[in-house]
Amino acid sequence: MADRCVEPNAARSVHLRYRVPDHATSAQNTVSVSLSQTGTYFCAINFRCGYMGIQELYDGKKVVIFSVWDNKTDDDPEIDRQAKATYQGQGVDIQRFGGEGTGLRCLLPYDWALNEKTIFRVDSETDGTWTAYSGHYFDQRKNEWFHIATLKTLTQGKLICDCVAFVEDFRRDGKSFHEKRKACFSDFKYLADDQWKGCDNVRFTADPTTVLNINAGCEENGNLFLETGGDTCNCDTPLNETVKTK
Known about the structure:
Layout: E1 14-18, E2 26-35, E3 40-47, E4 50-56, E5 62-69, E6 84-88, E7 93-97, E8 103-109, E9 118-127, E10 130-139, E11 144-154, E12 163-169, E13 181-192, E14 195-198, E15 202-206, E16 214-218, E17 224-228
Antiparallel strand pairs: 1-12, 1-15, 2-9, 2-13, 3-4, 3-12, 4-5, 5-8, 6-11, 7-8, 9-10, 10-11, 13-14, 13-17, 16-17
């Protein structure tokens, strides 16, 4: 008889979902990792056509990542569906990626530290049926913004729309399920109608697996957090509910 209690290979992916209007042109969020494991991605902004954040790779090296997907909806063979790079920051490695969709991925070595805040911002600008997405992060070492890259993709003129922050275990070796990860997210805002606006209604979601060693909530300082794997207890926010702020 098959064992019905087989553990997942990976810690469950967990998300914070921010409501952002379709006409917003920019979004900004701050991530601070309090507990990391190799093979973990901490996404600050997952927007309509891409995502950006920080990773700890399999070998423990740390990077900034900014990616944009190819157009997924138009299967006309006569249409160029591949994302293009129109600007590449110094030291940034841009490559094609596959797997969960295809597109362009930018990697930049950045030895971020635990409990250190890293601010990310994505700006969008339409050019006919294409949209150019410019990814930036605030370099704490140099105390300045760094323009990672500008990547454009076929969108039929769409901009950023609803945004998501998430924590994902991509090591998926069975052991990683038993390891806890935690990150805090703060000061999320978006630019619409020439004004930066905050988002008070943030919903906690997760991938379709059913394990409940996941959690989300609000710390005393007002930062929202995501936690997954190991001995995490779902004791602050029920799944698919709004995170209550302090």
